[in-house]
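Lecture 7 notes: from sequence to structure.
We start with the chain below.
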Amino acid sequence: MNRFGSKHRYNRRKFLRMALGLGGLTVAAPLLEACGQIVRTTPAPIPTPNPTAKPNPTATPDPTVTPKPTATPSPTAIPAEEMARVAFVRTTDRAAGVRRAIELLGINPVQGKQVLLKPNFNSDDPCPGSTHPDTLRTLVEELWAMGARSITVGDRSGMGDCRSIMRDLGVLEMAEELEFGTTDFDKLAEAKDWVWIRLPESHWKRGIPMARPCLEAETLVQTCCLKTHQFGGHFTMSLKNSVGMVAKYAPPNDYAAMDELHNSARMRSMIAEINAAYTPALIVLDGVLAFRHGGPHEGTLASSEVVLAGTDRIAIDAVGVALLRYFGTTAAVARGPIFEQEQIARAVELGLGVDMPERIQFVTGDPDSEAYAAEIRQVLLQR
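Predicted structure tokens for the same chain:
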């Protein structure tokens, strides 16, 4: 019997699908309210963490034992409703880490819902260049077990053809096995397939052409990697994963939206602004391996040994930046307080999540993860 009350996941999934019926993504939901103005900040320098620092090696916890989840206390007395909970699992086993992180988070936003799952298929390079097949498989299995009505995996690739990348990574074969759909946003060729998002005080000159399936999904789940970005983003985790929802060439006039993004001095603010168009129901970050230099497709590897889960993109990315700093990273990522990183600072201005590191609460389930999380919290709180 699993924790969702089903002995056989696939029998339960098929029952739910017969009971609820299949269908396309529902047309739904208002898009945006007006957003606040930009506050430009100048990061104050802080000492760069020791690039050689590594977590103390310990034995892998016994998988048959389920320790009681532990919430790392915040240094200040902040009401629980103002905290962003981040499940933090130290592991080298992606499948076990994904399952445990979702369990620790203790939410089920997909029951009876049509789910769009947004991975990181920017290229066909191995993880962390792209979403690891084990991470995708386990997340799909968990979503079915949680009672998802349907699942569609969708993305747009920046370094190749997304359909070919899915084939090369074994995703199309996996889709047949696990009975989920796939979609390549690059193949959305009609103007009606894209929604132009226009924000007050935006750095996007014409607006943001967003893939309609992402905005009309009943529930959107994303899974991202842990890595630096050498082409101007500085880091690519949850916030930057949303770039794959934006048209490379927006119909009907094939406006080169990605050229505008990558040629802008405010690229990192523009990345944050994409996220104002939608709210994910669940985020899973695979940080078993990380690129601490280079990225997004290749770089210097760090054995960061962690899986994170949460619902707050700012919190997930802030913890991710702290992890990169812990292992030694680029000067751009190591510079200043984490919440003054431009991606995060702009996301805070837009009200997309927590506004300070003290509002992030780590949830762990074993002593090893708890000790590791405590070290990352120290980096997170540095000014």
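Points to note: The mean pLDDT is 85. The first strand starts at residue 70 and ends at 71.
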